[in-house]
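User: Can you recover a sequence for this backbone? Please restate the input before giving your answer.

Assistant: Of course. Working from this structure:
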């Protein structure tokens, strides 16, 4: 034992002294300081490059070959997704989850209490049995399902529940993204991660306005009770005969229920060191469609977060003519608009609608049932193993999203559209 250790201790000084000797010899033979420095650098580069392989640094050769140079590893963000569904949504949710998958992200999936136990068990076993999910351990299912009422505050509490789980599961994500089983991405994760890597991590994408319009009488003034808070069977919200006035202690905002929230804002909501998120949560307990108001009202009434609000929900949605209450179901007729859209997500879709196959083939280059191929994929068949997850292979989607960000974040109008 002893002699080996002694020998090892000698290896490094030996290499150093030989290099110094080579250096001295080279300079003394007047080969030129520059070229000998290069020699020494190239010799030394053996060591850092070996270390960097262990630390999974970006592959340097790649950055010279690929046109858009990948962001430095530490710059690649991570997303925390909530994908939720209800009765009969298992197949839709599973497809959306697989299309969204990237080893760097975190995922929480939830099928609410209205779905059958069999459906939930099936989802749990699929998550458990998937070799990649099992290996990376970044897909979590809420097994104790919540009762969720459409338009009710239980929807908000479900979203906050998922946020809390994600905060606990990983210290390592930058944005929370709320999706449903009827949503579908229009870009690969490599595209979205790439486009987000140059963004300020404090930005929140949340479409909002303080102009309530018809919502003032139909949403803000009525009082509702959500039976999902105390009944174990599903029933719709009901209205109380009393109405209330608009609040004067804070300004109401309303907007899209789809959002991309920064980690800092999610921590503020969940940990509640300021009382505003908590008291607004109680106010919204009796509000019609609270998911379309709670987050918006909190962010715009918190001075430290108001300036991080980007007025967009990053979704392609087509609405009925005002009152904009029901989004249209997208079909092949919307295909051209979807392909032209710069939005990373779209909704809503029917289960296995042909337009999804169209998106798969034209935008995501995905084969049925498989993951979307990205820089992380290795093995045969592709994506059967996880290679280097920090290697991104952005495509046209990244350019489209950068264009959208240019319009939203880097535009002089950014501040003008904020919390108005
Ligand atoms: C998951 O694995 C278990 C045990 O290997 C097996 O019994 C079960 O059928 C598998 N489920 C699915 C959905 O593949
Ligand atoms: C989150 O996603 C669900 C889809 O399941 C949606 O209905 C809800 O309104 C979204 N937003 C919030 C804030 O919960
Ligand atoms: C990101 O945005 C926040 C809030 O606007 C600002 O305080 C911070 O300096 C920005 N960070 C960087 C790195 O630009
Ligand atoms: C597409 O549009 C055409 C003409 O407007 C209509 O007849 C057809 O039903 C639509 N198809 C779908 C799938 O919505």
């Amino acid at each position: 034992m002893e002699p080996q250790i002694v020998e090892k201790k000698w290896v490094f000084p030996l290499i150093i002294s030989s290099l110094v000797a080579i250096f001295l010899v080279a300079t003394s033979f007047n080969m030129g300081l520059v070229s000998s420095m290069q020699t020494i650098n190239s010799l030394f580069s053996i060591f850092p490059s070996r270390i960097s392989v262990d630390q999974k640094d970006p592959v340097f050769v790649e950055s010279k070959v690929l046109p858009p140079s990948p962001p430095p590893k530490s710059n690649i963000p991570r997303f925390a997704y909530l994908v939720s569904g209800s009765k009969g949504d298992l197949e839709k949710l599973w497809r959306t989850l697989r299309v969204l998958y990237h080893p760097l992200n975190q995922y929480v999936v939830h099928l609410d209490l209205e779905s059958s136990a069999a459906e939930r068990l099936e989802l749990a076993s699929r998550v458990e049995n998937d070799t990649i999910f099992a290996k990376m351990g970044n897909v979590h299912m809420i097994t104790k399902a919540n009762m969720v009422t459409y338009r009710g505050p239980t929807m908000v509490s479900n979203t906050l529940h998922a946020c809390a789980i994600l905060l606990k599961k990983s210290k390592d994500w930058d944005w929370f993204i709320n999706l449903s089983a009827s949503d579908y991405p229009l870009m690969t994760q490599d595209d979205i991660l790439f486009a987000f890597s140059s963004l300020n991590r404090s930005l929140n994408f949340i479409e909002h306005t303080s102009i309530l319009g018809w919502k003032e009488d139909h949403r803000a003034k009525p009082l509702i009770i959500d039976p999902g808070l105390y009944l174990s069977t599903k029933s719709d919200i009901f209205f109380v005969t009393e109405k209330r006035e608009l609040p004067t202690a804070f300004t109401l905002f309303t907007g899209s229920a789809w959002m991309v929230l920064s980690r800092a804002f999610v921590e503020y909501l969940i940990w509640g060191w300021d009382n505003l998120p908590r008291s607004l949560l109680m106010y919204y307990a009796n509000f019609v469609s609270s998911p379309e108001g709670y987050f918006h009202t909190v962010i715009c009434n918190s001075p430290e977060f108001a300036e991080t609000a980007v007025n967009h929900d990053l979704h392609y949605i087509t609405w009925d003519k005002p009152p904009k209450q029901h989004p249209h179901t997208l079909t092949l007729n919307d295909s051209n608009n979807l392909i032209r859209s710069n939005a990373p997500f779209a909704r809503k879709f029917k289960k296995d609608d042909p337009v999804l196959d169209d998106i798969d083939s034209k935008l995501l280059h995905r084969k049925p049932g498989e993951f979307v191929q990205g820089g992380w994929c290795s093995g045969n068949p592709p994506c059967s193993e996880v290679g280097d997850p920090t290697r991104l292979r952005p495509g046209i989607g990244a350019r489209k999203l950068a264009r959208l960000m240019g319009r939203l974040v880097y535009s002089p109008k950014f501040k003008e559209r904020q919390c108005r």
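That completes the design. The chain has two domains: 2-65, 77-408.
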